[in-house]
Amino acid sequence: GIQVEQSPPDLILQEGANSTLRCNFSDSVNNLQWFHQNPWGQLINLFYIPSGTKQNGRLSATTVATERYSLLYISSSQTTDSGVYFCAVSSGGSYIPTFGRGTSLIVHP
Amino acid sequence: DAGVTQSPTHLIKTRGQHVTLRCSPISGHKSVSWYQQVLGQGPQFIFQYYEKEERGRGNFPDRFSARQFPNYSSELNVNALLLGDSALYLCASSPQGQETQYFGPGTRLLVL
């Protein structure tokens, strides 16, 4: 099956800093989503982005499908951005997502 | 609109017992998927149902089973529980299973 690698595994920031999270995948994809899992375990959709660029407030994402990676940008980070960020992809005729291991983000005040 | 709901929120069982977890999708969504998330890892796909039919199954033993009801709610059953079944079980819904998935708050299962 498709392999998904996320980097970095851990990230610690001061409030106000910017960051870039990366998701590499091993095959062409028909679906790619970014999620934020808060400390209580709730997974929140951030972006559905199999290709192209999207922005939502302080967050933006870019997927370069031909080069098999996606980037999630967080600008002016806040303590509420803390949690784990997951990339999930599906490929071929399947829409069943495969999740990466996530990037754990801690934002200090 | 109500999001995806799951019950119970927490559960403690002993080895060998069975458990039933429940999920209600967002109104209008016809597809429900189940995931298992162990500590430190991303969610792993268990099942997907669409219109009461199983559309996909992950690499889990036959002790895991699920079904979807006419109102599109779903149950996940796990028999002969093992210590390794301790995890957060997540349910997600989507209109037809091929789009953005919306996750519920999960059920935390502890097997002693």
The count of strands of chain A amounts to 11
The proportion of residues forming helix of chain A, as a percent range, comes to: under 10%
In round numbers, the mean pLDDT of chain B is 94
Question: Radius of gyration of chain A in whole Å, from Cα?
Answer: 13 Å
- Which residues of chain A form runs of ≥5 with pLDDT under 50? none
The helicity of chain B comes to under 10%
From the alpha carbons, calculate the radius of gyration of chain B and give it in angstroms: 13 Å
Helix-strand pattern of chain B: EEEEEEEEEEE
Shape of chain A: globular
Q: In a nutshell, what does this entry contain?
A:
The complex is a heterodimer of chains A (109) and B (112). Chain A is mostly beta strands.
Tell me about this structure.
The complex is a heterodimer of chains A (109) and B (112). With 109 residues, chain A is mainly beta. In chain A, 0% of the residues lie in helices and 57% in strands. In chain A, the strands form two sheets. In chain A, strands 2, 4, 5, 9, 10 and 11 form a six-stranded mixed sheet that branches. In chain A, β6 and β7 form a beta hairpin. Chain B has no helices and eleven strands. Chain B is mainly beta. In chain B, 38% of the residues are buried. The chains are: A mainly beta (109), B mainly beta (112). At the A-B interface, β4, β5 and β10 of A face β5, β9 and β10 of B.
Helices and strands in order:
The complex is a heterodimer of chains A (109) and B (112).
Chain A lengths: L3 E4 L2 E5 L4 E7 L5 E7 L5 E6 L3 E5 L2 E6 L4 E6 L8 E8 L7 E2 L3 E6 L1
Parallel strand pairs in A: 2-11
Antiparallel strand pairs in A: 1-3, 3-8, 4-5, 4-9, 6-7, 7-8, 9-10, 9-11
Chain B lengths: L4 E3 L2 E4 L5 E6 L6 E7 L6 E7 L2 E5 L6 E5 L5 E5 L8 E8 L7 E2 L3 E5 L1
Parallel strand pairs in B: 2-11
Antiparallel strand pairs in B: 1-3, 3-8, 4-5, 4-9, 5-6, 7-8, 9-10, 9-11
